[in-house]
């Protein structure tokens, strides 16, 4: 038996451990249809609202006689870079939160925006990608990209670039029976120092897949700088961390932050961890929570602050200590707490046999 | 959207409910191999079906939707990693036990599950698509959104890593060095 055949057999055996689905097929289909219909209603309401705003924007200037077509000030925002996302070649009929002109304080700098739009996305040498250490998403074609945001954030320059690629090899269209894949919307965040030229902008987060009707945010754990990209008119609220009450329930305190054209820039408390996992944001539209998510996080190079763990029932092996340290670091990152604020005790350490599906280890 | 108020768009063997009934089990198994956890696997299947439901009529007009749905499932899995890699990671086992005695009682499936989980996600997906879904390199490349050579490289390295890890397990893979998987072409399914 070849290694490939042996692996096929073993994978088949492992896959059977998935067990039977918890819902029957028709029941699952009904639930999906119901949830999808609910989302579509919300989307239609949003589009209707946007349509009303557009109509008002057209009608009001004409009624008051200020609708001269050449009334655009010379210092106004630069027109949007030509974008395949906008012209419908790759676009979807849904409201696209990332379409439209570049937003942010640097949107006027057309040369900067155009250069950032063309920056390479590949963060790793090919060898790393070949190892599977990165997702190695190919760079989306430049003509499909748009700079959604370019602005000054905490004294530095940040930019969000969004592109599309139908991740199908170029020769796939010649193959019979192939199903074309969905175009994929992908995003990447670039940052640079104050007054950075485009050549100084570096990929800091992504590329990663996004969806057009869901907001996107990113946070720098070192400084706490947070940018949320939502639709113009959306209300953005942020929460620093979950709060656990005495009865064990978890709550969050939300604070509204100012938005300009749907972009919220704010500062959260810096994290001592290399990444942020406690911050959350939510987007409200017409008084209704439209989305809630955690921001993408830059990764800082600073080592994590050690978390002391007490072992009242004896110390485990070095491997066990490492597991406890990792768990403690993870818990503190999720809770947004400094190690000095907590006492962590490993009440018990040991191994739990859990060989069967449905059993859990504690 | 078509069929939004009913069980789903389409009629007959390519109707959405029929597809879900036929494919739910196999999608769950594929998702289980990708994420290594039953709960996440069900979430992944649900999300992939939710994404495809909206365009079901258009998808089925182009042919059998299985490949499309699997592609969405794989790309959704990749997207989840991007967004939620630091979130809750439910597991049936502690990631590192205080002692290693339980390792002696691990069955072959658990060994393989751990070995798969230790692979980088793209490599894991490549291995699963090539050797579980039995796709050829071109089909795998289409699903993964990469080149055939990348699939070839990742599959070979994934196989090598699994061979190393599983060599000490209860049902080790043959240790003979067969080199990278052959670039044989199988007919598209």
TrEMBL record, chain A:
Assigned keywords, A-Z: Membrane, Transmembrane, Transmembrane helix
Biased composition (Low complexity): 71-82
Protein name listed in UniProt: Uncharacterized protein
Membrane-spanning intervals of the chain: 46-64
Keyword Membrane: yes
Annotated region described as Disordered, given as residue ranges: 1-29, 71-104, 291-322
From TrEMBL, chain B:
GO terms, molecular function: DNA binding; sigma factor activity
SUPFAM superfamilies on file: Sigma2 domain of RNA polymerase sigma factors (SSF88946), Sigma3 and sigma4 domains of RNA polymerase sigma factors (SSF88659)
Residue span, RNA polymerase sigma-70 region domain: 20-85
Region (Disordered) location: 84-105, 168-189
Gene Ontology biological process terms from the UniProt entry: DNA-templated transcription initiation
Domain RNA polymerase sigma factor 70 region 4 type, first and last residues per copy: 110-162
Keywords: DNA-binding, Sigma factor, Transcription, Transcription regulation
The keyword Endoplasmic reticulum appears for this protein: no
Family annotation (NCBIfam families): SigE-fam_strep (TIGR02983), sigma70-ECF (TIGR02937)
Family note: Belongs to the sigma-70 factor family. ECF subfamily.
PANTHER family assigned: ECF RNA POLYMERASE SIGMA FACTOR SIGM, RNA POLYMERASE ECF-TYPE SIGMA FACTO
Protein name, entry field: RNA polymerase sigma-70 factor, sigma-E family
Species lineage: Bacteria, Bacillati, Actinomycetota, Actinomycetes, Geodermatophilales
